[in-house]
Amino acid sequence: MSFKTAVITKLALRNLRRQARRSLLTAASMIAGGALLIFSLILGDGTHEQWIDSAVRMADGHLTIQSPRFQGSRALKDRMPGESRAFVEQALLQGGIVGEIRVMAPRLAVTGMASSAAGARPARILGVDPAVEVSFSVLDEKVRQGRYLRPGDRLAAYVGIGLLEALDLRLGSKFVLTAQDAGGEIAGQLVRVVGTFRTGIPEVDRSLLHIPLSTAGAWLGCGGDVTSMGLLLGNSELVPQVRRSLQQRLSETHGTEALRALSWRESLPELDAAVKIDDFSNYLFQGILFGIIALGIVNTVLMSVMYRRREFGVLQALGLTPGQSASLVLVEGLILTVLSGTIGIALGLSVTWFLWGEGLDLSSMMDNEWTFSGVVMEPVVVPRFRVARMVQGLSFIFLIGMLASLYPALRAMRIDVAETMKFER
Questions:
Q1: What whole-number distance in Å separates Cα of residue 239 and Cα of residue 93?
Q2: % of the chain beyond a pLDDT of 70
Q3: Does residue 65 sit in the same domain as residue 51?
């Protein structure tokens, strides 16, 4: 630190001490703002991660490997051949991404009809590996009656409660599934209800059912083929890194058009939009809050400049340049905001960790199940602490302090030495 910089910093600290009451009032608002900022960011991150985790476990995972055409057609002709499935499984075991993958679930999805003596209803039929699916999906936790599928089941079906009621079925009832098979022919399959589930999402409960993957493959003539491979990762932050690595391997071996790794943002666009909108509203609120705080900083620093016109005149007469006068004011504003913001962030982290580190229970605000963008909200939100958010919060506060100090700094730079020396304080 040069001599001039040290002098400017010392003068800035001295002035903040001289105007202790004004400085403390502004600091208090910054501390409260910093604490609220970090609380809202880490709580928002925890909420979003909870939305994403619930949604991807109800859908096809953080990453879905499938034919590029299947996303639009949803047809068996665009399924993934058995040899491609084997290659994907091998590729996932190579390199440094295997440790990031919690579960890999093969699935065979088809749209068809479910029929009973009471009528017929459209159905989303999902062939799954029961041994894998219990670690991948949340449906096995939503049992209303009976049980989830088990390894060795052959003609079993796990059915949404809405579809069960529409077809007037009960545990042990038999009904027929009809869909277009791999050869383009209409094929039927008799199955028996072994369990029912309720997710709280009417569209899912009225249409979705699970059957064993082996049963679906034999019925539809697909053998060991699947329509997709779902990957569940440790958290959503890992998606870009794992996707890049996986897509590179798929392209090198199968070509760019053979297989594609879709992120949850592509396979669940409604959820992606909901997360972005929630982020925007949070940033908007913080922008308004810190805009008000910035006005307080402007008031504090500008009043300091106006009351010290003669002091600035004397300093400039002694050799302080207008630019250095402006630097003095900027340093005052930055010291005030950075110190206050750091204390505020530390306070926000401490309070959040000690009071809600295990989760913030919102069950008293939810009389019934609350769904948002097709996701059932859990009543307990666990905050997510990330170093990146701390850096982001400090950077934002630093920027606010700099911007709020610019106008007072310009006023200090334009002080006329001759005019200020004419008058006594």
A1: 17
A2: 90
A3: no
